[in-house]
Write a structure and sequence with these properties.
This protein has 201 residues and is an alpha/beta fold. Helices cover 35% and strands 21% of the residues. It has a 6-stranded parallel sheet with strand order 3-2-4-5-6-7, with helices on both faces. It has a two-stranded antiparallel sheet with strand order 1-8. Strand 2, helix 1 and strand 3 form a beta-alpha-beta unit.
C-alpha cells in the first residue's frame, strides 16, 4: 500500500480568508499536526496584519527546515506576498489577486497601499482555483500566465466538493513539505508500531 510519512522538519503556516478564523474548513482539512492558523481581523488595522504574519514566519523559520505558507482568499494574497519576500514554497487556494478591486467594502485597506500580486517566485508554488465562471476566475486566468516552471495551477470544476478540495489541499502540501511517499507491506511490518510512528506526524 502507498502511504505518506509526514516530514517532521516541516511546518504549514496558514492564513485564513476575509472574515474567517482558524476554524475554517480549508485549514481544518489539513491532515498534519505541525500547522498553525492565527485568527486575525483584516478589517481592523489592516497594516498591522503584515507585522503579525511576519513575526509568525520569523519564529517558525528558526524552528523548521521546511516552512510552507498557505492561504485562502485574502489570506492567499498574504501567503504569496511573504512567500516572495522570503523565498518560500506556498499553496494559494482561490487567491484574492487584486484585493482593492475584488474585496467588497474594501475601505479597511489604506488607499496608499499598493497590493501587487507578484508571480516571479522561483520556489514551488501551487495554486488551487475552483472554476465557477466568476470574474475572480477570469482574473486568475488572465494573470497567472508566463509563470516560472516552479508554479503549478490546478483548476477544479465548480462541482468539486469540500471533501475533495481537502484531498487536493493535502496532496499539494505533501509535495511542498517534502513528505516521503512509501510503499508499505503490512504483512512484513507490525501494524501497531507503524501506526504509532505515523501518528507522531
Amino acid at each position: 500500500m502507498l502511504d505518506i510519512i509526514k516530514n517532521p522538519n516541516s511546518f504549514v503556516l496558514f492564513f485564513h480568508g476575509l472574515d474567517a478564523n482558524n476554524q475554517n474548513d480549508k485549514f481544518t482539512s489539513i491532515k498534519r499536526k505541525q500547522k498553525l492558523c492565527q485568527t486575525v481581523n483584516y478589517r481592523h488595522n489592516f497594516q498591522n496584519i503584515f507585522d503579525v504574519y511576519n513575526d509568525l514566519i520569523q519564529y517558525h523559520l528558526n524552528n523548521y527546515d521546511c516552512l510552507v505558507l498557505a492561504g485562502d482568499g485574502l489570506g492567499a494574497w498574504f501567503a504569496n506576498h511573504f512567500a516572495h519576500q522570503y523565498g518560500l514554497p506556498s499553496l494559494l487556494i482561490e487567491p484574492c489577486i487584486y484585493p482593492k478591486e475584488s474585496v467588497t467594502n474594501n475601505t479597511f485597506i489604506p488607499n496608499e497601499m499598493r497590493l501587487s500580486f507578484p508571480i516571479i517566485n522561483t520556489n514551488t508554488v501551487r495554486v488551487i482555483i475552483v472554476d465557477n465562471n466568476t470574474s475572480s476566475v477570469a482574473t486568475a486566468k488572465r494573470t497567472l500566465v508566463n509563470l516560472p516552471d516552479s508554479w503549478e495551477i490546478d483548476y477544479l470544476e465548480d462541482t468539486h466538493s469540500n471533501t475533495n478540495l481537502g484531498i487536493d489541499i493535502n496532496y499539494h502540501l505533501n509535495w511542498l513539505c517534502n513528505d516521503e511517499m512509501m510503499i508499505v507491506d503490512l504483512d512484513y511490518v507490525d501494524e501497531n508500531v507503524y501506526a504509532s510512528f505515523k501518528d507522531k506526524y
